[in-house]
Each structure stands twice: as structure tokens, then as C-alpha cells.
Amino acid sequence: MQERDGPSLYHGGDLASARCLFPDAPEPFIDLSTGINPEPYPIPHLPPEIFTRLPDAGQLAELERIAALRYRAAPEAATVAAPGTQALIQLLPRLHPAKNIGILGFTYGEYERIWREAGTPPRIVEDLDGLSACEIAIVVNPNNPDGKLVPAADLAVLARQLARRGGLLIVDEAFMDPLPPQQSLVPIMPADGALVLRSFGKTYGLPGLRLGFAVAGAALAAKLRAMLGPWAVAGPAIEIGRAALADDAWLAGLSDRLAHRAAIVEKCLARCGARKIGGTSLFQLFVHPRAEELFQRFGREGVLLRRFPERPDWLRAGCVAEADVARLRAVAERVRAF
Q1: Where are the chain's structural domains?
Q2: Residues 6+ apart with CB under 8 A from 9
Q3: From CA 128, how far away is CA 264, in angstroms rounded?
């Protein structure tokens, strides 16, 4: 059977397409094609009325306050909750119209897609200097898929340069949570000229909840709220988000736990001849001269990796759940034996 066309499998996590591609693979799949924490935050008790009433504006404001504290946003910054960061990304061409868009490096493909579809194809640049003349500059930090990290101080300088010309720096910090807070632009971002996106589902292992945040100056945040409209964030997402983002103890040891799982994945891929060339604690990037063959062999064994049409020798692998470690090791040994 042929792989289903469309963006889903390219983004990872599309098990329906994986089953079409590997119809004889054992179930359940070990899905390493995403960068999602396999150790989800424990969902608290949800009162029944949270499903029968419209989301409460006061609770939404409390969620945004807790998120601002978690991300260490400055008092003059505003934090806006949304139904996932992808929903915010879709709004960007209308939020700040521009004709000169620059994107740093090979990265998350949705940014190029949305501006191209809006009639303004962006330029891909190789360093921050290449972004300084843009009206809108986009940096994914740490970058997806190679994990490259740009110092927050350098981004703050760029944001101020753009602000002086009415420009905007957009920084996608979807994979920032497990890193030390000083790596984030949020605590030092200027009042104007910057917009930072933060994901909830990846770190907290609850992507189906659809929750994300934007941190920006007051005027830009107000425009975002108006574009999102009322009741954009569901009541259950508000309730779970409030509990999770306020839970310091759960997040405290996350980096060590993820590093342990990542080391297991790295060792398994290394035994099959793949070499790690980048990544974060939530995903790792590997190079292999026969990456497509490796993707196919793991897929037939029920392990889904992430491949890149633009980089045919690359494979990306997320973290493995503890319950899947023994099976992944066994699969790696069988693939290695080919």
C-alpha cells in the first residue's frame, strides 16, 4: 500500500498513515515520530460541569497568569492562551502583515507554508545577521529538528533592531520547557518587537488537549485575543493547564527523566549505524547513509521514526516510554542483524 499523501505523516504522529504504509506491523506502534513527552502529566479530577458550561473567563485569566509565572514573563508582557500553538501560527500572516519574511535555517515547515499560502514566500537564511533586514524574522529555538539553540541575549538584540523599524521577531519555543529558564527569550524580551510561542502539549505529554501560549507586548496580545475570539480554549484544557503549569515538583526532575529515555533511543539507533547530529531532550536527530531503509525496517517492526524528504539521510526519533524500552531494544537488535 502507498503512503497517504498530505502533511500529517510528515509532521509525525499519524498512526493511521503508518498503518497504511506498514499494514503487517505488530501493534501497538511505538511512535517515535513526534517530539512529545511519553510520560504525560497525570490528569486531575475534572468536575462534570466543566463539560456542560462555557469556559470561564476568570479561570482563563488565571491560567494565563500561571503560564506567565511559569515562563517568567516580565510584568509588562501579556500572555495569551490558545487552542495549541499551531492555531497561533495560522494567524501570524494576518497578525502582522509584511512582505519581507525571513526564517532561520531548515526548521518547522509550517512557517514557510503559511506565508507562502498568504502570498508572501519567505526567505530561508543561515544566521541571525540574515534576519536583521527582514520585516518579520522567525526563529525556532531550540530548532526543530536539529536542536540548535540561539542565545536569548542575541535574540533580544535582534528584536530591538526590528522594533525600531516596525518589524517583529517571532520565536517558537515549543521545546524550551525542559531547558534552564535563562535559555528562553521570555524573561528578557523587549516590550515591542517580539512574540514568543510556547507549547503545552509536548512537554506535558498531552498534545490532544490543544493548549499553547503567546507572550507579547500588550498591543500585539490584544490583537491576538480579538483574532482568537471568545471561548477559544476549552474548559478541560484550562483546568488541566492550571494544575500542570503550577506543579513545580513534576517539572523539576523532567530533564533528567527525559535524558535517560533519550540515551536509550540513541543507543538503539547507534547500534543500527545511525549517528546523532543534534536534538533536544524530547527528540534526537540522526544521520544514516541508508536512512530510508532504516525507516522502513523499523516501521515493519512497529516502530515509527520521522523522516525528512528534504534531507534523505536524516531520521528523527522522540523519547521512548518506559513500557516500550525492552521492545525497542529487541527491534533494534533485529534491524541491526540485517
Answers
A1: 7-39+253-336, 49-246
A2: 3, 17, 18, 21, 33
A3: 34
- Which of 274, 262, 278, 270 minimizes the C-alpha distance to 313? 274
Q: Where are the alpha helices (DSSP H) in 120-228?
A: 152-164, 201-204, 218-228
| Residue 95 C-alpha from the chain's centroid | 20
Looking at the DSSP bridge assignments, the partners of residue 335 are none
Calpha distance 297→314 (Å, rounded)? 15
CATH code given to domain 49-246: 3.40.640.10
| Model pTM score | 0.94
Among the CATH numbers 3.30.70.270, 3.90.1150.10, 3.20.20.105, 3.20.20.70, which is that of 7-39+253-336?
Answer: 3.90.1150.10
Strand partners, 140: 172
pLDDT in tens, 247-300: 999 999 898 999 999 999 999 999 999 999 999 999 999 999 999 999 999 999
